[in-house]
Fold:
Amino acid sequence: MHQIRVRGGRPLRGIIPISGAKNAALPLMAACLLSCKPVNLSNVPDVADIASMTNLLREHGVRIERDGGDMTMNAAQVESTTAPYDLVRKMRASVLVLGPLVARFGKAQVSLPGGCAIGNRPIDLHLKGLADLGAELSIEDGYIEAKAPKGRLQCGRFTFPFVSVGATENLMMAASLAQGETVLINSAREPEISDLAKLLVAMGAEIEGAGSDTIYIQGKSELGGATHRVVADRIETGTYAMAVAIVGTEVILSNTDLLLINATAKTLRQAGVTLETVEGGVRVSRGDEPVLGVDMMTEPYPGFPTDLQAQFMSLMSVSRGKSMVTETIFDNRFMHVQELSRMGANITVHEASAIIRGVEKLKGAQVIATDLRASVSLVLAGLVAEGETIIDRIYHLDRGYQDLIGKLSACGADVSKIVSG
Ligand code: EPZ
Structure:
């Protein structure tokens, strides 16, 4: 089992290139199933979740070629419309193939994803929305069986009872090949939604309103090929901004955009961090003074993202003062608290909120990563902790952070992988 070792106390200085967003690239890849023509993506991150989606699409018969950040996908000859359990259980985003498959082939069998470390994550909205587009759905032996009567989905008008990123994406893709105009109300507004809409439009779909809460999709009988660049990863951007905030000095985050992390930037500024736009990226700096305690609540975009909550909690652990962090998106996303406490953080959790009383120093310890964002929050804590932090179960990190060790080391951090077994 590999581990990461972080020796704390070294300030960061340099340039960190931000990769394409994995949470944008995953639905963009699933969208290739909507067309028999090639879809070309650039700026695709090299992370394990992308490899999982590649394996799943290949299982369906999609031909995929990859050269660095460039990926070509050709779904001209889809042989199977079944997404098997073994592939789906590795990554919940696999459920994103459901909409495209049933829209183009009139049928799909997708395994139910099963449990998840960050809470109960049902997919009822994906299913209700597809049913609204006329899909007939049933659950058989752990699989969702979806059929489009007469082979084609119909238009619909679906109101999400609350915001879901994945369900908005699944329905946007499905509606692009449905008959007539679909309206999605109370849709997610994340930049990944706008990015998917851009690709679908380039493929010939007619979509208006993506990025707002009401999306109009005029379905087409077929879609073509397209070329598209994956949007920068706002969560990676925010993660490195917090790395600078926690340990101090100055880093340029290149190939990204401050506009993608507006809410995060606002909160970090209140804490005393400087963020400004520079050509091609964002400059983040923090001087000798520790950050101030600031309250924060996670919300759907444009609010503060749940995917940066764990990292923010590491930062607040060494703040001057107190802060309250409230998680409103997932019901079990405080798994990192126990590990941060082992490093000396003073955190009390009450239901969906955590009170963090800033301490002067964290101390290195052996800790366990529980999910992707929790893992990176421990790396951030390790950057500022006294002594050595050893993080176990680092495969979580590989799912979503391309070359984390390389990027931090290039800016002066003492971070390395311990390879064993
Ligand atoms: C996406 O997950 C991201 N994943 C998550 O990133 C992110 O945390 C989440 O959006 C929220 O921003 C990808 O984009 C691949 P949701 P998704 O549907 O789409 C509930 C990371 O670390 N819900 O917006 O699965 C759900 O349980 C990951 O990169 C239902 O109840 O999230 C949650 O409480 C983790 N029924 C809330 O809605 C449904 O049918 C929001 O989930 C769907 C969702």
User: Anything to note?
Assistant: The CA atoms of residues 5 and 390 lie 5 Å apart. DSSP finds 14 helices and 24 strands in the chain. The longest helix spans residues 234-247.
